[in-house]
Design brief:
alpha/beta; 20 helices; 6-stranded mixed β-sheet; 7-stranded antiparallel β-sheet; binds beta-D-glucopyranose; 36 strands
């Protein structure tokens, strides 16, 4: 700390201000005069991408957020966090822009795949483990997006209109839990407004709650370009990203200082926090930025495979799974042959490798099965990249040779070259390697050897101008201004096995915010792809349909229009299951879809976008080498209209009203007795579990006491399995609107056949509380509560009642009592909370509670001035 204070004392005003915005897209600003180095950030969350957008060195691709949520396994998520810490270091970065803990408010929100859950407790616990796994290794996490950023529609401007209780109990809660448990180095403010105010300037969330009540000591950075006006410096934001500064420029910051909206004390506080990141990252000792490396390690592969297995949720099974005595398998679906593992947007990484469902199912040794594939339906909006095996260089390397040139004429020495099978690129801001960002050209060339003869479709999509040549003949001309952002295609007869010279030339001139070029390819396909798939299904013992979505449908930047499987997929499923009743549907999605065929298929597996190891994990589960143990982290409603946000989504006149209040997800379906398709917490296993002997150690407690809940869980089936034991709490009778039940604890436990384990949960006041807006404090209402333990939110196996007693009140509340004595009284706690918020309410400030308020005022007059003690005294005296 003294180093940081020394530095602050030595820094000029301009040096301090210079630190309040990034240097570029991914780095903070250094102050060389004082030896203050830079730190580097990278996206996040399902990998650590590096600084060169799609051209970064390859990365580990972990399961996406919702898939991690589905594991319900914080211990495993911590290991995934360890992998990400290694990945951060490989990319020479210090902070991962992750986790994303926004809430699944509507099933069609574009970034649901990135977020863990509809439940704040599950989100908070998964986030805590993820952050810990990263930060135990000397690098940091940036939890995002703070706050109420739960849809992509009008994402830069929409105002989320959310009442205080809902904000506290649902949307802030994952942040609160993760910050308390794991203290991430950074918080990212969101793009949207909250109750009319831009989130990056919302004093209520940033200053009063985050930095005040929660006593958060890390930095708050903006989302990229998510700052909007000259109110920024005065508020809770510490770092404007990316750089160079816009609203954190010297001019704007100085004006704020002159007008007094920004005090020098707050400016120093921002700088102190930023310097704190450098200290935590050890950058004062090792200031040199490291080059980016791609590291594909066997131990990473193993952890990712385990996470990918545990993410898979067995939604339905009539006994067909695990597969036994199967000789032929038909793998059907748009992403049977290629692994679809990413949603669209900033979370995308270039994986080291991917294992497709087909390759995974085809691979296991000792399984004597014939696996064949059929596409069945297409779902992409833009054509996917040509298969990697079709691209090569004249000297036999895999991929095309890519060269970047300064200027638009493809001449001179290339300033960057790579050979890669990546032929779809997008660059944000200044991330194009080595060339002038507003004026450059790119060539990709090599050989294209299609696998089949027939009519192929080739495509170019681009933000910029480009042309595609085959054997020097112009095939697609994407060269006019009116083509910008569109896909242009050409159909062409090609011979399978023949190598064609392929060349893409692209150039950009202009504003460098976003540029892109993508080569697409669709091989010949039968006129009736469903019939082809049905044919294959008929002659196979089992059909596995991998149906789903992809980054064209699920993405940052836009929401889905409905909850249906796109293209002909529903029809494909109907016809395939009619042709072969042994059909298993595998859902490759990042959020819920409607399943009009659910009753007709014998088994449904929820796969998610579950990492580079997707196909292996799927094969492990299909063949029973891994027993599925995932549980839904979000409700799958029957239809979109059942969802509680439906009526208010997406909002109007720039506002979206969170009209359902705290009744998000299962809190709503329970309350309204709406039958979901698959409930929150649901997930089957290849074995069965019995719950017995639910015991609580106290029949009644006060909110200041803890209680223990014990339950025995027995594996009553024939194979080892893991069960997620879920504990919900119900307030039996309440003065306030409360959900039928709320998740308050869970534990994933592994049991061998016939094995029993006792699970112990400890509950404290948080298991019973709600946010009391009149007191501006969490409060517990005395009375009866039911403790519900079960295998899902709709499969409760045992329950017990507990009475919460009113707190015994001190004879008279006054400022001379120990602070803890006042805090033990709900009304006293409310008074303290109102006036000195977080400082004293933080769990780790419990020691200060052994002092009197007067003592604290004496020692810390800045936090607790004498006048405030007087005011608190007056209010305490009024409590009866
Ligand atoms: C996203 C963030 C991301 C940032 C940097 C933004 O568009 O909302 O989640 O971290 O870009 O790529």
């Amino acid at each position: 700390m003294s180093r940081i204070n020394d530095l602050i004392n030595q820094m000029t005003l301009d040096e301090k201000i210079s630190m309040l915005a990034g240097a570029d897209l991914w780095h903070s600003v250094s102050v060389s005069r004082l030896g203050i180095p830079q730190f580097k950030m990278t996206d996040g969350p399902n990998g650590a991408r590096g600084a060169k957008g799609s051209m970064s060195t390859p990365s580990v691709a972990t399961p996406v957020g919702i898939a991690l949520g589905a594991t319900w396994n914080p211990r495993l998520i911590e290991k995934v966090g360890n992998v990400l810490a290694d990945e951060l270091k490989a990319k020479g970065a210090h902070i991962l822009l992750a986790p994303t803990v926004n809430i699944h408010r509507t099933p069609i929100a574009g970034r649901n795949f990135e977020c863990y859950s509809e439940d704040p407790f599950l989100s908070g616990m998964i986030a805590s483990a993820y952050i810990k796994g990263i930060q135990d290794n000397g690098v940091g996490a940036c939890i995002k997006h703070f706050i109420a950023n739960d849809q992509e529609y009008e994402r830069f401007s929409i105002s989320s209109e959310v009442d205080e209780r809902t904000l506290r109990e649902i949307y802030l809660e994952p942040f609160r839990i993760a910050i308390r448990n794991s203290n991430p180095w950074a918080v990212m403010s969101s793009y949207n407004r909250v109750n009319g105010v831009y989130a990056c300037e919302y004093d209520h969330s940033l200053l009063e709650i985050l930095k005040g009540e929660w006593n958060y000591d890390g930095i708050v950075m903006s989302d990229w370009f998510g700052t909007y006006d000259d109110g920024v410096p005065a508020g809770g934001l510490d770092l404007e990203m990316p750089g160079p500064a816009r609203w954190m420029s010297a001019e704007v910051v100085k004006k704020s200082l002159e007008s007094g909206t920004l005090t020098e004390e707050r400016l120093n506080d921002k700088v102190r926090r930023l310097l704190g990141v450098l200290e935590k990252a050890g950058l004062f000792e090792n200031p040199v930025l490291q080059p980016e490396k791609g590291e594909d390690k066997p131990e990473h592969r193993a952890i990712i495979r385990e996470a990918a297995q545990e993410a898979i949720v067995l939604l339905k099974n009539n006994g067909i799974l695990p597969l036994a005595n199967v000789k032929t398998i038909a793998m059907i679906g748009p992403y049977a042959r290629t692994a679809q593992i990413l949603g669209g947007g900033s979370s995308s990484v270039t994986p080291h490798y991917t294992v497709s469902p087909f390759d995974g199912v085809n691979a296991p040794e000792g399984k004597d099965v014939l696996v064949e594939a059929a596409t069945g339906a297409f779902i992409y909006k833009n054509l996917p990249a040509p298969a990697p095996e079709t691209l090569s260089t004249p000297n036999g390397e895999s991929g095309l040779r890519l060269s970047l040139f300064a200027g638009t004429e493809f001449d001179g020495e290339p300033l960057y070259v790579e050979t890669s099978t990546r032929v779809q690129h997008g660059w944000f801001d200044n991330s194009v390697p080595n060339v002038p960002q507003d004026n450059f050209s790119l060539r990709m060339e090599g050989l294209f050897t299609p696998q089949e003869s027939g009519l192929h479709t080739l495509a170019l999509s681009a933000v910029g101008w480009c042309r595609l040549y085959l054997d020097e003949k112009l095939v697609v001309d994407h060269g006019s201004d009116s083509d910008m952002g569109k896909q242009k295609t050409a159909e062409i007869e090609l011979e399978g096995g023949k190598a064609y010279n392929i060349k893409v030339e692209y150039y950009w001139k202009g504003d460098p915010r976003w540029r892109a070029v993508a080569l697409g390819h669709q091989p010949p396909h039968s006129a009736d792809m469903i019939a082809e798939a049905v044919e294959l299904a008929k002659r196979s013992d089992v059909a596995v349909i991998v149906a789903g979505l992809n980054g064209d449908w699920e993405s940052e930047g836009f929401d889905r229009v409905d909850m249906k499987l796109p293209g002909q997929q529903d029809e494909l499923i109907r016809q395939v299951v009619a042709a072969n009743p042994n059909t298993i549907v595998v859902l490759n999605v990042g959020s819920p879809v409607e399943m009009p065929w659910a009753d007709d298929v014998p088994a449904i597996l929820q796969l998610w976008y579950n990492s580079q190891e997707q196909g292996n994990a799927l094969a492990d589960v299909l063949f029973g080498d891994a027993n599925p143990s995932g549980k839904l982290p979000t409700t799958f409603p029957v239809r979109l209209e059942d969802n509680p946000a439906y009526i208010n989504y997406p909002g109007e006149n720039g506002k979206v009203r969170y009209g359902e209040g705290i009744f998000v997800g299962y809190r709503y379906y329970d309350k309204k007795k709406v039958e979901p398709l698959f409930p929150f917490g649901h997930g089957l296993s290849y074995t069965t579990f019995e719950y017995s002997n639910l015991q609580i150690n106290k029949k009644s407690i006060t909110p200041n006491e803890t209680m223990e809940v014990k339950v025995d869980v027995t594996n009553t089936g024939k194979v080892t399995g893991k069960e997620v034991v879920q504990l919900y709490v119900r307030d039996v009778k309440s003065t306030f609107a409360r959900p039928e039940k709320e998740l308050k604890a869970f534990e994933k436990v592994e049991l061998a056949p016939q094995q029993t384990k006792t699970i112990t949960f400890t509950l404290d006041r948080e298991a019973f509380w709600y946010f009391e807006t009149t007191l501006n404090a969490w409060s517990v209402e005395a009375g009866e509560f039911e403790i519900l333990v079960g295998a899902s939110s709709r499969d409760i196996r045992a329950s017990q009642m507990v009475t919460i007693e009113p707190v015994k009140r001190a004879a008279r509340l006054h400022a001379g009592l120990l602070i803890n004595t006042i805090l033990d009284d709900p009304d006293g706690r409310a008074v303290i909370s109102k006036h000195i918020g977080g400082f004293l309410l933080m769990a780790d400030m419990r020691m200060a509670g052994e002092l009197t308020l007067e003592q604290v005022a004496h020692n810390h007059p800045t936090y607790v001035p004498q006048e405030l003690v007087k005011k608190i005294e007056e209010e305490l005296a009024k409590i009866k």
